[in-house]
Amino acid sequence: MTERSDGPRDSRSGTTAAREAPAEPAQHPAATGGGGGPAAAKPTWGGRSGSLGPSPRVAIFFLLPTLILLGAMVVYPIVYSIWRSLFDRAGDTFVGLGNYADIFTDQSMLTTIRNNLIWVVVAPILVTTLGLIFAVLTERIRWATAFKLIVFMPMAVSLLASGVIFRLVYEQDPDKGVANAVITTVRDAFSSSAGYPGARPRPNDEAHAVQNGAVVTRRPVAAAGPALVPLVGLRPNAIPADAAPAKAPAAGGGVSGTVWLDFTPGGGGKTGQIDAAEKGMPGITVEALQNGAVRGTTTTGPDGSFAFTGLPAGDYTLRLPQENFTAAFNGVSWLGPALITPAIIGAFIWVWAGFAMVLIAAGLAAIPRDALEAARIDGATEWQVFRRITVPLLSPVLVVVFVTMIINTLKVFDLVFVIAPGSVQPQANVIALEMWRVSFGGGDNQGLGSALAIFLLILVLPFMIINIRRFRREGR
């Protein structure tokens, strides 16, 4: 019988390679696991069998400094604040939840909570919306890099410095505040800004009267001679610096006249007559009325003189409208009680809109372009593509930005503290600022301040948990 070999044959001798191969030495039973078969080798790392990486003792050794710092800077302050919030102002008497009850019963505290609610509702929505608009615009303009740089630049400025900047922007005086300078410039382009509040005729003036705040002539004015309108009730320094000495226009030039401050500094002069030291009142609107209708309108010059042109012959009643005697428009009171919170929210949006734009632009760049192009090919408009495809695909990023902004608004402190003047801080107060004010800003009530700190932590925690869970889902 021929012996069969499964091994490959040698081409020279015809014998199998298996027969010529030397026998392998027998393995030790310990290497075979005691069963005669090959055993799986178990690598050892860090002194442990079957596990990769360092041992738990080594990991704890390296984590211990961080854990100590975390406990000293985070855990201990939280625990101590909870404990301190249960005691009174001095920390000697246990009051239980009395400090927490004061938060919801004190009227100023309720105003603070209301302001925080306004912040949470308004600011995150506006920041996220503007960030989305800016991110979409950067994909459609050529100078996108410069645009992103300009919008993101406020992030390089601290919130304290941003507060100082906007405190100057919101100044009431248009010569100092940029916001009011812009508003008054635009308004002055459409209407006169001259105002002489308090100006009026003399009480015994038989030629002029006050009707509904306007100064009118009692008798018709003929075109033959100038009409003189003397006014009092103003300080000399209320006249503009560019005002010239009052001068009566020449007679026979149509309906004309002069409006001036009938007051001579130092005394003297004649009542109802133009004296050399008396100033004209420039910029006053004068109307010519006939049968109750306005037939012409003009404005006084630097010397207070005025003249109508193109009026038909006849007698007219002159009227100086009420607008001449109201205070000149000096802008909006941004730092007043009514607008202080919206003004500070505007500063917050200026700071954080660039941050939202960068995050949303990163998410926008990750959207597959095939889906957008397919929708356009199918006939969808740009608005439909944006609303039905772009926004749904960006929803995870938008949620992250929105939740992050909610956390930031709950913790806002710097902007409110710097921008709001001391007189209106109660109207602009927020929880973080009230916590500092009660504890260290003169209140000296550590118990109530600790309660506010824990209340703020409770408000922030749910949104932090939402962000952490979303990050974990995205990581998986």
TrEMBL record:
Specify the superkingdom: Bacteria
Topology of this chain in the membrane: Multi-pass membrane protein
CDD domains named in the record: TM_PBP2 (cd06261)
Show the GO cellular component annotation of the record. plasma membrane
The record's subcellular locations are: Cell membrane
Taking every annotated instance into account, which residue ranges of this chain make up the domain ABC transmembrane type-1? 113-467
Q: Name one GO biological process term.
A: transmembrane transport
Which segments cross the bilayer?
Answer: 58-79, 117-137, 149-170, 343-368, 389-407, 448-468
Region spans: Disordered? 1-48
| Gene3D superfamilies cross-referenced by the UniProt entry | MetI-like (1.10.3720.10)
Biased region (Low complexity) positions are: 15-31, 39-48
Q: What is this protein called in UniProt? A: Sugar ABC transporter permease
Taxonomic lineage: Bacteria, Bacillati, Actinomycetota, Actinomycetes, Streptosporangiales
